[in-house]
Specification:
This protein is mainly alpha-helical. The chain has helices at residues 29-63, 80-102, 106-125, 131-150.
């Protein structure tokens, strides 16, 4: 029989490829969480960057109120100086947590989920002042939360 006529024998062991029925095999736990493990490192860098940008955002709002768009009749309308302090404080905590994640500290993973959640909420409420920037930071925060929750301690960074 020539190689073109030989039947296909799928790989065994569940490491990928097709099964005898033709369906794709489920990825192994190591393959499933590999993206999350590398995602923790990426989340740490994103948190550090998000924290520094949050600090800048807060300082700009505190120092000069006319940097941001004025919201009309908005339910969560605060003085921009108040928003500045909120972003400054959250930014400092996010940056410190990002540094903790880079050092692989357990407290940073636990605090990271909570502080990323607070950052998402703060940026969601800040949408009338900076819509595109706020939505971008909400998306980054959601990725950080997923990454920190999907990571398993046995996965390699």
């Amino acid at each position: 029989m020539s190689s073109a006529q030989q039947p296909y024998n799928p790989p065994q062991g569940g490491t990928g490829g097709a099964t005898a029925g033709g369906a794709a095999a489920a990825p192994s736990p190591r393959q499933r969480h590999g993206a999350a493990a590398s995602g923790v490192l990426f989340a740490a860098v994103l948190m550090l960057l998000d924290g520094v940008l949050g600090i800048f955002e807060g300082v700009m709002a505190i120092a000069k109120d006319d940097v941001y768009t004025r919201a009309g009749n908005y339910v969560f309308k605060f003085d921009l100086t108040s928003w500045g302090w909120i972003h400054l404080i959250i930014g400092v905590v996010v940056a410190v947590t990002g540094l903790g994640l880079l050092s692989r500290a357990l407290w940073a993973r636990v605090l990271g989920v909570g502080i990323a959640g607070l950052s998402v909420i703060a940026n969601f409420l800040f949408i009338p002042y900076q819509p595109w920037w706020s939505l971008t930071l909400v998306a980054i925060g959601v990725f950080v939360i997923w990454s920190l929750c999907a990571y398993r301690p046995g996965d390699e960074l």
